[in-house]
Amino acid sequence: MALVESYNTQQDESNKLAVFPTFHKVEGKMVVVVGCGDEAAAKVRLLAQTKAHIRVVSHERPSAALAEAVADADGVFMLSLFNPAYLDGAALVFAATDEEELDREIVEAAREKGIPVNAVDRPELCDFYTGAMVNRAPVAVAITSTGVGPVYARHIRAQVEALLPREAGQLARLADSFRATVGKLMPSGSARRRFWAEFFSGSVAANTFAGETQKALTEAHRLLNSEQDQKGYVWLVGAGPGAEDLLTLRAQRVLQEADVIFYDALVPDAVVSMGRRDATRISVGKRKGTHSSTQTQINQLLVSAAKSGKRVVRLKAGDPMVFGRAGEEIAALREHDVDFEIVPGVTAAFAAAASAQIPLTLRGVASSLVFATGHNQHGDVLPDWADLALNGSTTAVYMGRTVAGKVANLLAEAGLDLSTPVMAIENAAQTKERNFAGTLHDLCNFEHHDSVTGPTLIVIGKAVAHADQSRSLPLSPYKYEKLPAVVAA
């Protein structure tokens, strides 16, 4: 047994921290920074985000950056040789002189007075480290790494900064205003835990992050008065073209908050799995000719889940507002007084253009962009957008592979030159993406590419000639093919 315990202890040591993260109370207290250069300025800017009184001491005149930082922080600058007396009453001390001997003197003086001290870029002298900070006052996140240095900490900070909504501080202040009341009305610890779990991840948080502060306050009162009558919330979320790293940060956040996720057939499993681990996932996919759920049924599912108090994500491929039937779902949610938010996504045309380097608009070539679909609600080719392609527009045709020949005929009949450049992009922005290039003449045979089974976007227009076609396959699977008689005539 002794051997096993010894082994486990050694294994666990690698997971233990060399520092203990804490936050110092500095409100109304003095913090001293000794130095005159940019390192001192960086510490002053960091301290300016707190309610500390800032004193800067240096025997040299401050750099322009430091002078500006001190002024912005309403701090005090003392042009003087360092004197330990300047540290009296300080809560924290920073040595940022860039002179090792002087930094050591400052550290020793601070320790004699029992004041925690940090020597910039001298970790061996530090009593504490300052992490990269994300400020969402009164919420703060500090990240530091003693193993790989500040660069990695700043990298992590950038990710946290993006993931933590700006309104997180506002939500924290709202929570603080309810804390005493919750303590009185809910003496049970389990009841309080349920309340706060719903407060920070339900409709209160959702409305706060959406900028609906009055709704958030109303929802907080409702939650306080009746835990049973919980009001749900719906997000209509664009999943983008399918690549996980093209999902927006807001979409990632709400996926983590959802109790139930209704997702389309074109949304990859890898994106769906980014939802909260215990969220219910329900496929409501619709492909041409196969609908697992009708639009009316989907509307009913969204309303029913929200009415039962659930936080609901309706996950759609691309952008929910571009051929995503979001309008019908919005109407249903409004009709049943369900709060909702739309989270945009990268639509297929933009993803395809980025991958194939197609300038969708180009000065002197294409001054407008048309989004069209190969099918209307009855499955017929749309009759009313073809003439737009004749006026210099770049046309992006969604869901057009199986009717590519009809689209080519339609445009040719309208007068578009048969030599007009065309590209088709299958599985845009995904690892299995394929590009096909050719002309309007070739497009009539594209539907005969039997190997093309993924979602495909067709881009038509003169701007396509400026795309990167170096890795493109032929748009037509046949080397020689005439257009159908209706076009030739």
From TrEMBL:
Family statement drawn from the similarity comment of this UniProt entry: Belongs to the precorrin methyltransferase family.
Pfam families reported for this sequence: CysG_dimeriser, NAD_binding_7, TP_methylase
Stored CDD domains: SUMT
GO process annotations (BP): cobalamin biosynthetic process; methylation; siroheme biosynthetic process
Domain Sirohaem synthase dimerisation: 169-224
Keyword hit for Methyltransferase: yes
GO function term, MF aspect, one: NAD binding
Keywords associated with the record: Cobalamin biosynthesis, Lyase, Methyltransferase, Multifunctional enzyme, NAD, Oxidoreductase, Porphyrin biosynthesis, S-adenosyl-L-methionine, Transferase
Entry-linked InterPro entries: 4pyrrol_Mease (IPR000878), 4pyrrol_Methylase_sf (IPR035996), 4pyrrole_Mease_sub1 (IPR014777), 4pyrrole_Mease_sub2 (IPR014776), CobA/CysG_C (IPR006366), NAD(P)-bd_dom_sf (IPR036291), Siro_Cobalamin_biosynth (IPR050161), Sirohaem_synt_dimer_dom_sf (IPR037115)
PROSITE patterns, A to Z: SUMT_1, SUMT_2
Coiled coil: none
Name the record gives this protein: Uroporphyrinogen-III C-methyltransferase
Transmembrane segments annotated in the record for this chain: none
Residue stretches making up the Tetrapyrrole methylase domain: 234-443
